Amino acid sequence: MKNYRNIIFYVIVTSVFLYMMYWVVQFGKPLETTKVTDHVVSSDKDFIDQVKDGFHHNLTHPFAILLLQIITIIFTARTFGFLFNKIGQPTVIGEVVAGIFLGPSLMGMWFPEYTGFLFPKTSLSNLQFFSQMGLLLFMFVVGMELDLKVLRTKAKDAIVISHASIIIPYTLGMGLAYYLYLDFAPANINFLSFSLFMGIAMSITAFPVLARIIQERGMTKSKLGIIAITCAAADDVTAWCILAAVIAIVKAGTVMSSVFTILMAVVYVFVMLNLVRPFLKKLGEVYSNKETLSLNIVAIIFGILLISSYITEVIGIHALFGAFLAGTIMPPSFSFRRILIEKVEYVALGLLLPLFFAFSGLRTQIGLLNEGHLWGVCGIIIAVAIIGKFGGSMFAARFMGNSWRDSIAIGALMNTRGLVELVVLNIGYDLGVLSPQIFAMLVLMALFTTFMTGPVLDLIKKFSKGDPDEKSDLEKQKFKVLLSFGNPQTGRKIVRLANLLSGSGKQFNTEITALHVSPSADINKFNAAEYEKESFKPVKAEAARLGIELKTKYKISNDVSEEILSVSHRGEYNLLLVGAGQSIFEGSLLGKVIGFTAKALNPEKLIGSLVGKESLVKSSSLFDEKTRAFISESEIPVGVFIDREFDEAGEWVIPIFSVSDVFLLFYVKRIVKSSNSKIVLVDYNGIVSSNIEILEEISGIRKTSEGAVDLVPKRDFDLGKFGEESILMLSFEGWKVLEREYHLDEALKTSALLMRP
User: Fold this and answer.
1) Which residue would you say has higher pLDDT here, 528 or 321?
2) What is the Cα–Cα distance from 201 to 177, expressed in whole angstroms?
C-alpha cells in the first residue's frame, strides 16, 4: 500500500508542477513583443542546416576540443606505454614516443587534416597550461620521494659520482655548443645562454625513471641499487639548483644582472627550510593517517605547493623548482608522505603528465632534420651525451672502489634521461634558447639514452660471472613450491594449500617460497618497503601458525604475470600456486569488446588465442588474463586456486577423467601423509576401475593411511552437495568436462584447485 501511495504522490506532484510551468510559458509569451523583434520561421532545410551548424559549433568548441585531446592523448600514451613495456622499456619512453606520434613528425605528416582538427594552434595554450599543472604535481611527488636520510648516509660516494656525472658532460656540452652556436642557436640568443642550456641538457639524469628501472629489476636492496639511487638523488638536487641558476642568468641576460635573482632565490630557500618546514613537520606529527588527514589539511599542503611555485616563477627560476622544493620539505613522516603521494600520483601520472608528453611531441618536428648532415649532428649530440654521462659516471664509480661490473651499470643508469630531460628541454624552448631543430635533436638524444639503459643492464647481467640465483645440487633435489598472491588474505589461504600439497615433516624435503609482485605503476620508491611489509604480514603469520619455514620474494614489475613466470623458471621450482583472478572481459558485450582490444595490442596473446593456445579456460570468466598466462606459458606444473570462503580442507574431492589425470595421485600421497583430510576419488568415466596400474597406485596410498581414501563412481558425484570444508582438485582437462556439464561460474560453491602437470 505504501508503494502505491508513493507512486500516486509522485504522479500528482509531477503533473501539477509541469502544468504550472506550461502556463508560465504561455503567460510569458506576450512579453516578447517588447524584447524580441526578429522572428524567423525556418523551413525543414533550414532546420537541418541549423542542426548541422549547432553540431559543428559544439564539436569545435574549445572545451570539446580539449576533452577530445585528453581522451586521444591518454589512450595513445597508455597504448604506447604498454607496447614499450613488452619490449622491456620504461613506460615513460612509450609515452614520449606517443607524444611524437601525435605531433607533426608522424600524424601531422600522414594525416594533416586530422591533426589540424584535433590540435589547432589556438588550442595549444590550453593544453600547455594543463601539462604545466601536471608537471608541478609530478615534481612535487619527485621531491617527496627523495630520501634525504639515505643521501646523508651515503653522501661521500654519492656526491663524488653524481657531481662527476654532471661536471664532465656539462663541460662537453658547453664545448659542443661552441660548434653548434652559429648554425643552430636562435637569433638574439647570446652564446652564454645557449652553452649553459646545452650543458644542462647533457648532464641531466631522470631520477624517477631510474628509480622505476631499479625497482622493476629487483635491485632496490642491492648495493648497486642503493648507490645508483643515492647518486641519482644527489644528481637531481644538484641539477635542479644549477638549472635554477641557469634560468636566472638566461632571463637576466648577464651573470651580473642575475645575481639579484639568485640572491632572492637563496632567501626563498632559506624561508622554506627554516620557517615552512618546521611548521610542516609539526603538521605531519599531528595528522599522520587517513582518518586525521582531512580535506582542510590537504588544501593547506596544495596551497604551499602552489604558493611556492608562484614565488619561484615570479623570482625568475621557474615554477617547477618551487614544486620540487615544496615536495622535499614535506613532513618526514612515512605515512603522511605516502598518503599525499597516493592522492597526487595517479592524477599527475595518469591524467596530466601524458598531456606534457603530447605537447612536447607537438613541438618535436623530426621533419626539420631533412638533410644528411643534420642527422650527423644529431648523432654527434647523442655520442657526446653518452661519453659525458655514461663515461663520467662509470669512471667516477670505478675510482670510488666499485667493481667494473657495478661501475658500468652505474654509468648506464645515470645515463638515463627520460622525462626530466624533456622538462629541461621544454624550459629552454619556452625561453627561446633552443631552436626547433636543436630541440628535436635533443629529444631524440633523450629517447636514445634512456632506451639503451635496459639493454646495457641485460648485457652486463648476461656476461657477468656467476649467478646469484644459482642453487646447489642439494637444493635442486628439494620439492620446491612457489606461491604467488595479490591479495594478502588470499595468500594466507594459499600457504595452507602449499603446505598440504608439498607435505610436511622430515620425510618430505620441501621448500615453500611466497612471491608478491606489485605493478610498478601502483608503487613508488618511497613506500616500497612498507608495501612489502604489509603484503607479507598475514602470509608470514599463517606460516608461523602452521610451523613451516617460509621464504619470501618481493618484486616490482610492469608485467606482473611475466615476472611471476620468470621467477618460477629461474628458481627451478616444482610447482607454481596462484590465485585465480576473475576476468572483467567476460559476461558482457562491452567487456568482450574491451578484452579483444586489449589482446589486439598484444600480438603474442592475439596469435595464441587464434591458434587455440589459450583455449584451455577460454570460456570461463573465473580466470583473468594473468591466470590464463600462467596456464598457457608456464614451463612447470601450475595450480590455480579458486577461493569460495576456504578455511580448512576437511575433504578433498578429486575426479579422475582420464589416464592423464593420474598425476594428481602424486599430490594425494602428500596430502594423506601431511593431514587428516578425507580423500574422495571419483572414477568419472570408469577409467580407474578398468586400469590395474591405477588401482594398485590407489591401494598403495590406502595402506599408508587406512580409511582416508575412498573411490566412488560418477553417480555419487554431485557438485552442489560439497560444502565449505570440501575442496575440489582436478586437472584442467577435467575442468573443461565440468564446464560442458555445469555452468561453473554459478554452480561452483566449493573452493577448487585446478592442476596442470
Assistant:
1) 321
2) 11
